[in-house]
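Chain and backbone:
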Amino acid sequence: MEKTYEVKLKPNSKTKSVTKSRAKWSKILSYAAFVGPALVLFLIIQIVPFFMGVYYSFTSWNGVSSAIEWVGLENYKRIFTNDPKFFNSFIFTTKFMVAAVIISNFIGFGLALLLNAALKTKNILRTVFFIPNVIGGLLLGFIWQFIFVRGFSAVGDLTNIPFFQLAWLGDANTAFWAIVIVFAWQISGYMMVIYIAALQGVDTSLLEAAKIDGANAFTSLTKIIIPLILPAFTICFFLTISMAFKIFDLNLSLTGGGPFNSTQSVAINIYSEAFTNNNYGLGSAKSILFFLIVAVVTTVQVMVTKKREVQA
C-alpha cells in the first residue's frame, strides 16, 4: 500500500509581515471611515473658526471690508478700560448662572426622585417633563413672552393676585427671574433624565438594609443615594453651568436684553458688538475672553465635584 504524506508549509516571516500590515491598514481604514467625517466636520465647524476668531480679536476688522488692520492687544485693553456694558452683562450672566444652576438641578433631582418611584403614570410624566427641552429657545421665549405679558395680566385682572399683576418683563428684577423661570422650566426635564438614569443604578439592597437598620428616608437620601450618584451631579452641574453662561436665544426672544440692557447676557453683548455695531474684532476679543472664563469655571467645577466623588 502506498503511504501518503501531508506536507505542512510554515508561513515565512515575509508572509506574516504582509498579513499583519494588511490587518493594520484595514483597521486604520475602518476607523477613518467612521471617525474621519465627524473629525473633518469638527475641524471645519469648530477648530478653524475658533483660531480665525483668535486672529480677528487682534484686528480692527468690521466684518465686511477686505481691509484688516492689526491692532494687537488694543481690543482687550478697551474691554477692561472702556466697556462698562460688557461687565454689566457679565455680572448679569453670572448671577443668572448661579440661580439657574441651583433651581434647575433642584427641580430636576426632585422630579427624578418622584418619577423613580413605582408610579403607574411615570413614563407619561417623564415625557411631559422632558418635552420643554425639545422646543427651541426662540420659540419658547416668544411663548413665555405672551404668557408673562398677556396671560399673567388676564389672570391678575380676574383674581387680583399681586404675583400675576407684576410687570414681569418691564422691570429689571422681575425680568431677571422671568428668564430664570423659563430656563429652569426648559432644562429641568433634561436634568431629570440624567438623574433618573443614575438613581436606577443604585443597588436597592443597600436601601433595604439601611431601612432595616432604622434609617429614615432623609438619611437614606443624604447618606446613601446622593453619595452614590455624585457623578450625575458632576454632569448636570457642568451642563447647566455651560448652558446658563451661553444663554442667547431664550434671552433674545424673551426680553431682548431689556429693559435698558438690564438683562443683556454676554452672548447678546458679543452678538451686538460684532453684527450690530460692526466691530467684529472687538466682538471676537470678547468671545475669546468669555470662552476662557467659561472654560476656567467649568474646569474648576468638574475638578471639585470629581474630588467629592472620590471622597464619597
